[in-house]
Write a structure and sequence with these properties.
about 350 residues; mainly beta; Lipocalin; eight-stranded antiparallel beta barrel; 1 helix; 25 strands; about 0% helix; hydrolase activity; 3-keto-alpha-glucoside-1,2-lyase/3-keto-2-hydroxy-glucal hydratase domain-containing protein; signal; AL/BT2_dom
């Protein structure tokens, strides 16, 4: 379900020293890096790793491991180990192992009670047991969503392709030709199929809701959260969550500065003549090509969204003071169509047959 690319040596000319980075930005949790040429030395260690470890390892079953490494500033890191592979690519959904550590020179050492992982320049991670015995190596990969760059189907409206913000109220195009946060659609949609691509800034010192926060508000009522939740648990207020109502079925957030995708199918709630809700809204969401909500009945508005009602409100791209960027946004209006029938959940893509 992904395009995979092996990561080679990181360009040294694209880095500034961690010391210089920290001196300039330490304590400023709102500081955000948008240009990969401006990242610190820690950035090259952050990311996703995969490989096989020794056949005598009872903990990991099939002996495949996935590792997600998260930079937290000043050479500090946290990480998650996954049995079977990476989320959406082999992970068996068993409990993830949480590690932490610090980079000393060219080596990042991560530990917990069972493992020691040494991450080196060049994208190789040595996995050892608690006694220091080498179990195997993991290799760094850059995953790419299968829906990245998806072309709008027949009948779709291209909302943003980098050339104009005519469909957006107060929309702003960056120098890169990307769409900034803090805007909303001029046209209001009842039910629809929406494709959005987004990129999170690199904010190693930020935590929680201060880390690359935005959101896609459907009908200004229901928020699909946008946040740098890479390598975290993936709870209700993290990336992919229906804000404070339902967590994503799997945390499919990629590392910051990666382009990511949401493919959202939304069926509006129904109200009687007196304005009483008689049927909940339904939603299916793919993040980076993987279903994270499947035909879910939204019980109420989320977070700070507008109260539910028959009146339509626009789709919003939330401004939460972090420079999240968007591109390749298109929509298929299903407002006048019968309620769609969902495909079998094993199918990886939204399909035209269902209109979803």
């Amino acid at each position: 379900m992904f395009r995979l690319a092996l990561i080679g040596l990181f360009c040294a000319n694209c880095l500034i020293s961690s010391e210089a980075f920290a001196q300039a930005k330490k304590g400023d949790k709102k500081f955000a890096i948008l240009d990969i040429k401006q990242v610190d030395e820690d950035f090259q260690y952050q990311g996703e790793y995969y490989g096989l470890i020794g056949a005598d390892c009872s903990w990991c079953g099939e002996c495949a491991l996935g590792l997600q490494v998260v930079a937290r500033g000043d050479g500090n890191f946290i990480a998650s180990l996954y049995n079977g592979g990476l989320p959406g690519n082999g992970w068996d959904r068993s409990e993830r192992q949480e590690l932490s550590g610090k980079r000393q020179g060219d080596v990042l050492t991560l530990t917990d009670d069972n493992f020691q992982v040494e991450v080196k320049q060049g994208g190789i991670a040595d996995v050892r047991d608690s006694h220091g015995h080498l179990l195997g190596q993991l290799t760094k990969y850059q995953r790419s969503s299968i829906t990245l760059g998806a072309k709008p189907p027949k009948g779709a409206t291209v909302l943003f392709d980098g050339s104009s913000v005519e469909h957006f109220k107060d929309g702003k195009i960056t120098d890169e030709g990307l769409l900034s946060v803090g805007t909303e659609l001029k046209k209001k949609y009842r039910s629809f199929r929406l494709h959005v691509e987004f990129r999170l800034p690199y904010m190693p010192y930020a935590t929680g809701q201060a880390r690359s926060n935005s959101g896609i508000y459907l009908q200004s009522r229901y928020e699909v959260q946008v946040l740098d939740s890479f390598g975290l648990e993936g709870v209700e207020n993290e990336c992919g969550g229906l804000y404070k109502q339902k967590r994503a079925d799997v945390n499919m957030c990629f590392p910051p500065l990666s382009w990511q995708t949401y493919d959202i199918a939304f069926v509006a709630p129904k109200f009687d003549a007196d304005g009483k809700k008689i049927k909940n809204a339904y939603i299916t969401v793919l993040q980076n090509g993987v279903p994270i909500h499947q035909d879910y009945s939204i019980v109420a508005k989320t977070g700070g969204g507008k109260q539910e009602g028959p009146e339509l409100f626009p789709i919003k791209l939330q401004d939460h003071s972090n420079p999240v960027r968007f591109r390749n946004i298109w929509i298929v209006d299903l407002s006048d169509q019968p309620d769609p029938t969902y495909c079998h959940p094993c199918q990886p893509l939204l399909c035209d047959r269902c209109g979803i």
